[in-house]
Design a protein that fits this description.
The protein folds into 3 domains: 26 residues; 126 residues, no CATH class; 125 residues, no CATH class. The protein is mainly alpha-helical and 329 residues long. It is built from 11 helices and no strands. The protein is 78% helix and 0% strand.
Amino acid sequence: MRQFNGVDKAAAQRNHAGDAANNQRRMGSASGGSPAKGDSPAKGGSPAKGGSPIGGGSPTGGDRASLGSPEGRFLASAGKPLSRLISDLKDRWAVALVRVRGTAAALDHAIAVASERRAHHRGGDRPWLLRLTIPLATGAEALTAFVAMEVLVSTTGLAFGLAVMTALVGAGIACIIANRRLHRLAVPASARAAEIAFVVVLTLLRFVSLDVQSTDALAALGGAALAALISAVALLAIEEVVVETDTYGVFLSRVRVSLRRRQSVRAMSQLAGCQARLDTTGEKFEQHFLDFLLKAEGFPLADAEQRARALRIAICRTDQIGAAAGGGS
């Protein structure tokens, strides 16, 4: 009986201890681990604290504070496409500016080279293309000389060769006289005498050749006189063209100046087009930001216009880009 009483007593003590532990666990859960303590909607995890419109998740609460100023909110939302477009237009404007400065420098260099060559040029300022008449005058001299050579040789080929050589000699005499004039030197009387003798001898040979080929002496005389006139005019034309026209170097420098000027004008027009598109896009950006400030932010009209204008000026400015392009070039 005593043994059984001891066992019952030990079991009763264990049951009492278990009840006390259960009571402590209930009290702990009610004080620290309940939903009202940490996770309940009334304490910390409710939508009213962090995510509800009443707390910080509304457009007028924590999200606005996280996005900063109205400019930042506009650039992060509705103004992002226009801001990217403005950035692309500024890049194009910078490229066009570099091209304008490059073409302007090339134009200045071409003008300097052309001016230097023109300063050292001793002749006139007639176009170089007039010198293309020199081969024509030489050819006319060769044709009239061929008439004179026919009576001297028996074959046509030999007569043609002598006519070409005679024409080249006449053109050489005219160029020698022109070179003396270009150097501001007096033309020797011997050079003029050689030129006159050249024309006279060829005229006599032409008369003989035409007299042999024709039965009328008067016609032969007229043909020889006409050939002499053609020869004299051809030699005089060669001399004056050499004196009064530009050299090929001066002509090439003028052509280069013309090409560089066209490239410069084209580059400037491209830059003006980029600037016009940038201004138009900037005005559209300003208008959209003004509407955003008035409708979404509730700004007064005067403040909204001032902020919109300031943002447009700040985002569309190109002076720093121009300075950077100028320093890099």
